[in-house]
Design goal:
The protein has one domain: L-arginine/glycine Amidinotransferase, Chain A, CATH 3.75.10.10. The chain is built from 9 helices and 15 strands. Strand 9 and strand 10 form a beta hairpin. The N terminus and C terminus are likely disordered. It binds citrulline.
């Protein structure tokens, strides 16, 4: 059993960065035009519950203040890829989101050495799916959802990330993403060698070696699950997938995310979880298999 625990140690975190949604959150980017308006008070409540859930799992959370220049700023995941011993700050694919990463850079660089992606490379962290020591990177197809979902991650961004990952001893492969915003909108890893997601991703050849939970078409938000500290944080309102995950013996925390769903966001987008040095030093057994 010890071996299995080692293999999941990269999903243990003691620290995370989040950012409160600002009063102009509803001005952010969304493909869901004409839907229900954002209830800002509810967004704040849902965000606070999300942060509490991370804290309940033993994670110290820094919650950054909103910045009115960046209505999508709460989706911090897109601005960084964090490894055990280093991090890369990305250039989010949509120009309206460039600049969100400045405060994130300052925050992470104080914790571990932080590299920066250079333009014209672009990449959203939502396109980066880590499964143990392998990284699957979603590359936006140029015809992405017929222009409704503009491309976010380009080949130049992917190349820079791959070089960075290799310098830390990790390997990567690519998956074309067309029908959804990010790779992790369509598929996530939930531990126990299992992926959950939309049929087209879960049954993609790239993921053939994993056990699969396919979400039913009426529960697309259940594809985005955050696996942290042996628990799964998922979107409430997806009873079939939730029951399946519970039946597999997972510790499931289903939380309401309706206001973030309206802005194409999910549970993985709202935090950058990481291991800080104290954690690495205090838990040597958990990093015994690190290739770093
Ligand atoms: C955007 O379109 O960029 C934001 N409204 C949503 C970003 C969600 N981020 C993520 O899935 N990692």
């Amino acid at each position: 059993m010890q071996g299995e625990r080692y293999s999941e140690s990269d999903n243990y975190f003691n620290y995370a960065v989040c950012r409160t949604p600002g009063a102009n959150f509803a001005d952010g980017i969304t493909s869901k035009d004409g839907g229900e308006p954002i209830d800002y008070g509810k967004a704040l409540e849902q965000h606070a519950r999300y942060v509490d859930t991370l804290r309940d799992l033993g994670i110290s959370v820094t919650v950054l203040q909103p910045d009115a220049r960046f209505p999508d700023g709460c989706f911090v995941e897109d601005t960084a890829v964090v490894l055990e011993k280093g991090a890369m700050i990305t250039n989010p694919g949509d120009v309206r989101r460039r600049g969100e990463a400045e405060v994130i850079y300052a925050e992470i660089d104080s914790i571990k050495p932080t590299a920066r992606m250079t333009l014209p490379g672009t990449l959203d962290g939502g396109d980066v799916l880590r499964i143990r020591d392998h990284f699957y990177i979603g590359v936006s197809n140029r015809s992405k959802a017929n222009g409704k979902l503009p491309p976010r991650t380009n080949e130049k961004g992917v190349r820079q990330l791959v070089d960075f990952l290799r310098s830390h001893g990790f390997e990567a492969s690519f998956v074309e993403v067309d029908s959804v915003l990010h790779l992790k909108t369509g598929i996530t890893y939930v531990g126990k060698n299992t992926v959950v997601g939309l049929d087209e991703f879960v049954n993609h050849a790239a993921f053939s070696q994993y056990k699969k939970i396919v979400v039913p078409p009426e529960e697309p938000n259940a594809a985005n699950v955050l696996f942290v500290n042996d628990a799964l944080i998922m979107h409430a309102g997806n009873p079939k997938t939730e029951a399946k995950l519970r039946a597999y013996g997972f510790d499931v925390r289903a939380i309401p995310m309706s206001e973030f769903e309206k802005m194409d966001g999910g549970v993985t987008c709202l935090s950058i979880p990481m291991q800080t040095q104290e954690r690495l030093e205090s838990k040597p057994a958990q990093r015994a298999d690190r290739t770093l």
